[in-house]
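Render this sequence as a predicted structure.
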Amino acid sequence: MMAGEGYHRLSGGLLILLLSLLCCTGSFARENPQERFNRGNFLLEQGEYYEALQLYRDIEQDEYSSGPLFLNMAISYAHVDSLGMSKYYFMKAQKYVNTRKTAGEGVAFVEGLLTQRRDELPRLSWISFSEWIHFEINTVYITIAGIFMINMGLIFFAMGWFYSFQQLLKYTGISSAVFGVLLIMASLIIDARTDVYSQAVMVRSQAEIRAHPVQEEDGISRIYEGYTLTLDQIRSREVEGWKYVRLSNGLNGWVEDQAIRTF
């Protein structure tokens, strides 16, 4: 009886211990991204920037994303003097409406700090226009405008059958419809080109741009932390470990993929 009673007590103790471990494990597993984000924010406020970044990176690795997350990551990286990474996350935060203004101010602030450390690349006007087309313009609005112009064109053309100035209404309708079709075609072309190009930020202190993706080859130019680059995604797939990029001064070349962050 004593042995059996001791066995049952031992079994009961092990069961309680096992349940306790499962409860503890479950409590950690139940910590959702918002709870981790809140803990990261507390650490950020306390000046524990590396610890906050660890939590933020864990959230990002779980494929969660938001403007406030990227904004706080940018702020944390700025405090640990990783300005390239800070600019990268500020630019990511700019894509969200609720953090666009603050993130834009952050980009300007980081750019000011970076300018004190390295020279600025000259910016060609056609490259600025190309970047605006590929990364800034909203093709949804262009498509809506195109559909609107086509509908207006059909209305004007139909009105031409009922009013005295038929020719003017018909020509106006045809012109409006043609312009609407051109707008929709332009929207489709921009969308297709957007899949080819993306933006990247230089996150190392410096790196070499090379004419070919070969480490031993002399560089044709040197780029520095915080430079914004245009990445050709199709050519970049040709060689593993390298990315084909274009600088704001029009120079093209290859850079090691670990030196940049793409978004």
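Summary. The chain has a mean pLDDT of 84. The longest helix spans residues 166-194.
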